[in-house]
Amino acid sequence: MNKDELLRARIYLGLSHDGLAEVLEVAAGRTVRRWEAGEKEVPGPAAVLLDVLIEFPEVREFLDIPPQPQWETPFEEWEKLFIAGAVNPKP
User: Which terminus in the chain has less CB density within 10 A, N or C?
Assistant: First the structure.
């Protein structure tokens, strides 16, 4: 997972840097910001968990991640719209 994919995943999930850090059980939101800036590589286990969170709503529910409006659109379609600039969710 590269930095842009991480950013799109975090926004799709509706999480702040600190919120994603808590879900991934990393030190702080600063770690997530470094991944998004490309200063550090996104670790494999974090990338896998993000993929699972996107793919399986029951995992999001289990982790008490509140539903987001963009979940009504499959991630692949939402991502295309996001890249094209047609979607502008709050980061």
Answer: C
